[in-house]
Amino acid sequence: MNTTANKITIVRIVLIPVFMILAYQGLLGWALAVYIVACLSDVADGYIARHYNQVTNFGKFMDPLADKMLVLSAMCIFIERGQMPAWAVAIVLFREFGVSGLRLLAVEQGRVIAAGKAGKLKTGCTMVGLGAMLVFGQYPAVNIVCTAVIIVTTVYSGFEYFRVNIDVFKNAN
After folding, report:
1. 163-173, pLDDT tens digit by residue?
2. Which of 51, 97, 150, 173 to pair with 70, CA 20 to 30 A apart?
3. What confidence tier does 62 reach under pLDDT thresholds 50, 70, 90?
4. Which residues lie closer than 8 Å to 161 by C-beta, 6 or more apart?
5. Which pairs with CB-CB distance under 8 Å and at least 24 residues apart come from 50-54?
6. Mean pLDDT for the chain?
7. What is the rounded radius of gyration, in angstroms, for the C-alpha atoms of the chain?
8. Is the pLDDT of residue 1 over 70?
9. CB–CB of 66/9 below 8 Å?
10. 14-60 per-position pLDDT tens digit
11. Rounded distance between C-alpha atoms, residue 151 and residue 144, angstroms
12. Rounded Cα distance, 27 and 95, in Å
């Protein structure tokens, strides 16, 4: 757990309540800065973990969890502000729970399902879209486009995870 990559993941988790407090206080510039640092820390910890052989079980578990906590926190703020419909967040949650369940079944079979290109695309589009909504959220068209991109990439990546790993269900007891 004491790797640089894991420390960066922990910092990302600590930044989430800071981001939320700043956003709720209406300090959107500061909230955006914290959000960007948190998003970039996801890229940094992944690079460091792979490049410096710091991949750990803690990181495999906490890194994607930290990402989900960050984006879902932002989505909750946008629901309250009327920038994002709750059904859109429900779709994101459904996908996240579905993929997590798939991964749990795979682990029981001695298999690890790593993040695929579609999942990385979804994470990137979601993080960028939510950042755009922080900056340009006063424009309804921005909220609609960003929500649509988030939903499309979320659904696509969810289907992709299940399509590629359908055998996990065939081998389940």
Report:
1. 999 998 887 77
2. 51
3. confident
4. 98, 99, 102, 113, 116, 118, 119
5. 52/4, 52/5, 54/3, 54/4, 54/5, 54/6
6. 93
7. 17
8. no
9. yes
10. 999 999 999 999 999 999 999 999 999 999 998 998 899 988 888 88
11. 10
12. 31
Tokens 């996908």 belong to which residue? 95
Q: Residue 6 corresponds to which tokens in the numbers above? A: 């894991």
Q: Which residue has the tokens 């578990």?
A: 61
